[in-house]
Structures are given as C-alpha cells and as structure tokens.
Specification:
heterodimer; A: about 400 residues; mainly beta; Rossmann fold; Neuraminidase; 3 domains; four-stranded antiparallel β-sheet; 4 helices; about 45% strand; B: about 200 residues; alpha+beta; 60s Ribosomal Protein L30, Chain: A; 5 helices; 5 strands; about 15% strand; globular
C-alpha cells in the first residue's frame, strides 16, 4: 500500500504527470462535484406564518432538497408568509439581509402555490426547484397492477392504465407528456408508448420473446430496451414513438437489464453480467464496445439511473438486502445511502425517488436527498407501489 | 498487476534520473508543482485506476451464438392458438437462486417436454420463465427470460424445431407459491411449459 501511495509524488517529481494524464484522458474525466453524497449538512432555515397544508408542502419540499428547520437566530434563510386563501411568501438571507423572494401567488391550488414559492426561493439561491415536477410509478402487483402518474410528492395520483393485467417499468419520455412502459395486455410482454395528452397508445416493440425495460433517450427521440428475439437477452435501441430503426447494441448470452441514458445521449448504461459477476456497463448509444463502470465497495449492482447533470449514477446494490448507492458516472468508489431499491433522479440531480420494502411485503415510494440523506415518504396508493420514474 | 509493473518501471526511471542529475541543488526560483491533477482521474490512492484483470473487463459478445437461435413470430398471435397448460404441468422445472442454469436433476423434465413436442408435431410450445420475489423487478424480468431461453436451448438441441418454441418472462409477477420464505421461493424460481394448440 505504501508504494501505491507514494507513486503520485514520484510521478510528479519525474515530470511524468502530464504524460500519465494524457494516457488516461481517453476516459471520461469528472473530478468536480457539487456535493459529497450522504455527507453534506442540511442548510438551516426558519419558517413562520404558515400552517396546515401550505406548511406541510413547504416542509416536505425543503426537507427533500437539503434543508432543516431551526429558530430564526440559527437559520441561514428566513422564510415567512401566510396562506389565507392565496399564498404570500418571503425569503430572506439572514446574513446579508437580502430579500430573495417577496411574492404573492394566485390560481391553481394552495399546494401548487406553496410548491411555486419554494421553487422561487431555490432559484433565488441559484438552485433548481422540483416542486412542480411529476412522477410515474406502478401500483399493485402481478395481474392487478396499473401505471399511475402523480405530483412528485404523491398527490393528485391518477391511473393512466386500466389493464387489470401485468404492467411494468413506466418511464417518462423526457420533454414530452408521454410514457413508455411494459404491458402484458396482449398476453405477451410488449413495450408501449403512451401519449398522455392524446391518449394515443403505440405498441412499439412486440417481437417474439420478451420485450422489457424501456428507457427513452434524453431528447425523447429514441428508446433503449431489452429484447430476447434473437434467442438471447440483449440490449436494443429504436426510434420513438413507433419502434422503427431497431438496432442491437449487445450480443451476450447473459441477462442485460435496466438500461438508462447519459444526459448527453451518448451512452446507455445497463446492468450486465460477465464471468458470473454482476456489474454496471455503458455502451455507446450508436453501438460499440461496452465499458465497465466500476462500483468499488458494493456488489450486485442493478437498476442504474444517470443524473441529469451527468455527474452521478444512482443504482440498487444487493448485498443481503437492497441498498440505494451512488457512484461518480465515470465509476469509482460507490457510496451506499439507504436501504431501498429502484431509484430515479429528480431534475435537480440531488433528490431521488425510490422504493422501500415493509416487513409485511408491501412497498412504498420515498424521497431521498442524496447529499444529506434526508427522506420523506410519498403517500401510498394500495399496498404495493414500485418502479418510480421522475419526469425530466 | 498493472500498478506493480508500472512501479517497477518507475523505480528504474528514478534511478536513471538520479544518475543523470546527480545530487545537484535545486535552483531557488523553481516552483515545485504539488499534486497537479490536470487530466488525472481522482480514483484510488494513487490517482490511477486500480489494477484489474483484463478478461473480467470484457463484456461477453458474439462468439457464441445463442443455442436456440432466432425466435419465430409464428406463435405470437394468441388468436391463432389455444393454451393447454395441464399437458406439461408435471414437467415444470426449478432453478437455484439467481441462476439460469438448468440443473441436471431437471433434465429429465426437459427431455419429457422435447419428447412430447416430437410426438405432437403440430403444436407450439411457450416456455414461461419466473423468479422468486427477492431480486429487483426488471433484473428479475431479464433473469426469468434467461431461464426460459436456457430450457428452449436444450429443447431445440434435442431436435425440436426452433420456430416451434417461444419464450416469455414474468419476472416475479406470477408466483406459484405465495409465501415469503425459501420454501415458496424455491417453488417460484421455475420454467412453466405451455402447449399451444393451433385453432
């Protein structure tokens, strides 16, 4: 170990640092990160003047985005306001006294107004709000499951299927009001594109064998998915919404699963096996040689999701139970965060929605702030909620 | 392996450098650059990627063709056949945890299925792969498919036409036993063989 540690100074002393740097430069280099997962302290804010639903919404939004509530004398930001009919909100920086937000809101619902106020506060401090984003998920299990969409905090949940059959893996099409998901409605595991605005349902992959795990590309023009038409389980990509222009990306006899895209659309990350060892891999979206993404410190990774800012991959590791873990997108040491499975990033690249198992076998959705590890449960519909996808 | 080889080369380089430069005093106007990270990925104590065995880095591809070959759309439309589930129900095969390998103890069942297909040349066969509840959902869906394909491969290898055998995975969505213990799980990790009778 000592030799390893002393290697870098020796390299520098010999002036080889640049050469080594060049030799490694063909790999994606991502050194700067905005936070250390699970290690950041929540930012103290004080909250006054709100009650009931408005207060609950503001608290949830701030908790899952890395804030904690303290008396004004220890707060960094002072949030105040009222919600009698319409919501009025103020946010002030306690140190420099700058008024960050001073606004009244009308229209929609009080919940929406409260979400909008928190979003305005976050934008004022240079961050991105998630208060008005949506999630999709699966409720129920087996032959009686349906796809739902809801606000990210679980409110306003609405079934978008009435299949009374197995449905699976809903995934938002980025920049479109549409989902892709798996359904056995034709007594076969096929992949559908569902335009939520028009209700138009397009069966986009229904090859012999299984058609599973759709993942729309960041620009909404393509879909990655897992098919077994060749007689083996492999990764494919095709056009949206009709499934045309099918292209095979992997040719292994192992079981690839859960593809996701890098935010620039260049790579598709997936869980795959080689030499009986499970790992995360990425393959160029236009085809090429898969590259392993090391996840040191944890085993059996599956269900990867690449953060919208490109920095991180969140995934499920199975080591006895399931753990939500994050790793730098280029690979490296993985950080286990909390027990749970099937994580999906919010557009802010810090909050994820994931699945928690009860002891009784039920499952519920929860929100996790990756930097601070603060969590909040999402209200549940029926006994089992799973496979969340955050709209981006 | 890579690191130790590199270290070896560096030691040699270091010796040569010292031999060439001797113990000359460093000029005082030279700024020593400490730990410049330009272009060096920050992983592992040395900043270099950890050594890995090359063969484990290769994603398996292509050399071995899937034994069962391309799946046929012939048995894709449920309007064209009726299902006979009881016919081969006694030959359901079970798998070990997280494995898609057909165990030798299950091979006689696969042989019986192949024999049935040869004796009934007009019917099709759907192999349904299933998992226990422990894996993650989409991982299980892929694993279940691979279990179905493993049996298909053996059935085709024993002489049944590939275009008569199709596969489907239910992941963990169709358990046979409802418990949450190994007794139930070992029952649920299975391939079910369904005879498809043309209408």
């Amino acid at each position: 170990m000592k030799i390893k540690i002393s290697l870098k100074p020796i390299l520098v002393a010999l002036g080889l640092g640049v050469i080594v740097g060049m030799a490694l430069a063909d790999e994606e280099i991502l050194i700067s990160k905005d936070y250390i997962p699970g290690k950041e302290k929540p930012v103290p804010v004080s909250l006054s003047g709100f009650s009931g639903e408005a207060e609950a919404v503001i608290k949830l939004d701030l908790t899952v985005q890395g804030f904690t509530f303290t008396p004004p004398e220890t707060a960094q930001y002072l949030l105040s306001g009222s919600a009698n009919g319409n919501l009025t909100g103020r946010a002030q920086d306690r140190f420099n006294k700058n008024m960050l937000v001073n606004k009244s809101y009308t229209g929609a619902s009080l919940r929406r107004q409260a979400h909008a106020f928190v979003d305005d506060f976050l934008i004022a401090i240079g961050r991105k709000g998630i208060g008005q984003t949506k999630i999709a998920y699966k409720a129920g299990e087996g032959a009686s499951s349906e796809i739902y969409i809801a606000d990210f905090d679980g409110f306003g949940a609405q079934a978008i299927t009435t299949e009374k059959n197995i449905v699976a893996a809903p995934a938002w099409v980025p920049r479109h009001f549409a989902l892709c998901y798996g359904s056995y409605r034709a007594d076969h595991p096929d992949i559908y594109h569902h335009d939520l605005g028009t209700g138009r349902l397009t069966k986009l992959a229904y090859y012999p064998g299984s058609n599973i795990s759709p993942a729309p590309s960041p620009d909404g023009s393509k879909v990655a998915m897992v098919l077994s038409k060749s007689g083996a389980v492999d990764l494919y990509v095709a056009d949206l919404p009709d499934g045309g222009n099918l292209r095979q990306l992997t040719k292994s006899r192992e079981d690839e699963s859960s593809p996701c895209w890098s935010p620039d659309g260049q790579w598709i990350c997936f869980a795959g096996k080689s030499n009986e060892r499970r790992a995360l891999w990425k393959v160029p979206a236009t085809g090429g040689t898969p590259v392993r993404i090391p996840t040191s410190g944890v085993s059996n990774p599956s269900e990867p999701d690449w953060s919208p800012d490109g920095q991180w991959i969140v995934f499920t590791s199975q080591m006895g139970g399931f753990e939500i873990c994050v790793v730098p997108a280029a690979g490296g040491t993985a950080t286990p965060l909390i027990s749970g499975e099937d994580p999906s990033w919010a557009p802010n690249s810090r909050t994820v929605v994931y699945v928690q198992r009860d002891r009784s076998g039920g499952r519920r959705l929860s929100l996790l702030d990756v930097p601070t590890k603060q969590t909040k449960d999402v209200p549940r519909i029926s006994g089992i909620n799973s496979q969340p996808s955050w709209a981006k | 392996m890579k690191v130790s080889k590199l270290t070896y080369l560096l030691v040699i380089a270091l010796v040569i450098t010292f031999a060439a430069t001797g113990c000359r005093k460093r000029p005082s106007n030279v700024t020593e650059i400490q730990g410049s990270k330009a272009g060096v990925r920050d992983s592992g104590p040395t900043g270099l990627p950890p050594g890995r065995i090359a063969s484990q880095e290769q994603f398996p591809s292509g050399e071995q063709k899937p034994g069962g070959g391309e799946q046929s759309p012939k048995w894709g439309n449920p309007d064209n056949y009726t299902e006979d589930r009881p016919a081969l129900a006694a030959h359901t095969i079970r798998f070990d945890f997280d494995s898609a390998v057909v165990k030798s103890s299950e091979k006689s069942n696969v042989e019986a299925v192949a024999a049935y297909m040869k004796a009934n040349p007009k019917v099709g066969l759907r192999v349904e792969g299933n998992c226990d509840e422990r894996g993650t959902e989409e991982y299980n869906r892929s694993l279940g498919e691979r279990r179905a394909l493993a049996a298909r491969e053996l059935i085709v290898a024993s002489g049944v036409e590939a275009d008569r055998v199709v596969t489907v995975s239910f992941g963990k969505d169709k358990p046979e036993a409802s418990g949450h213990d190994e007794a139930a799980w070992s029952i649920n990790r299975r391939d079910v063989f369904v005879v498809l009778v043309p209408k």
